[in-house]
Amino acid sequence: MENRTTPIIWLRHDKLRILVALQSALAGSLVSSVLIFALNNYVTSPDHKDLILIGLASGAIGGLIFSGWYGRPGRRGLFFAGLASILCPMLGGAVVGTFIAPGIGTLLGAFMPLLLFVTPIALLAWCICLCAIHLATLQMRSKFKVRSPKHCP
């Protein structure tokens, strides 16, 4: 006889981590797209899809590393989600920058998220995306009783 406990029993630690990484990758590509449209008058590049792919990759890498920091209840959870929202694109940008151009790419990639503060619309899109990731992860953690890994603060 089969043991049927919950319809979504597969949503445990590692799978939640992958879901947060996918959400973060989607947020990175969305914010990169908004940034391209906001800076369209200032930045002339023949190919903008590279910036969207860099946003996608850096969001996925940062989301995978900082996935345990999202979705915690209370003020402490909001603090860690905010901190992860700052560190996630910086670390992801540094890793992707290292793959593109080791050395200088690491430094430039880490500080690339500071472009968000140039345009208010990109900053607003970034805040909305990362609040949505935090709230969705909070709901998934509470609904399926998934706890954070022990290595997370």
Overall description:
The protein is mainly α. It has one domain. The chain has 5 helices and no strands. It has helices at 13-38, 49-65, 74-100, 104-111, 120-144. The chain is globular. The N and C termini lie far apart (40 Å).
Describe the structure concisely for a colleague.
This protein is mainly alpha-helical. It has five helices and no strands. 35% of the residues are buried.
Tally of separate domains: 1
Percent in helix: 55-70%
Estimate what percentage of residues fall within beta strands: under 5%
Structural class: mainly alpha
Give start-end ranges of low-pLDDT stretches.
1-10
CA gyration radius, whole angstroms: 17 Å
The overall average pLDDT, rounded, is 83
Distance between the termini: 40 Å
Secondary structure tally: strands: 0
Number of helical segments with 4 or more residues = 5
- Which of globular, elongated, flat, extended, rod-shaped describes the shape? globular
What does the main sheet amount to? none
Order of helices and strands: HHHHH
Write the topology of this structure.
Layout: H1 13-38, H2 49-65, H3 74-100, H4 104-111, H5 120-144
Helix pairs in contact: 1-2, 1-5, 2-3, 3-4
Key words describing this protein structure:
disordered N terminus; 153 residues; mainly alpha; 0% strand; globular
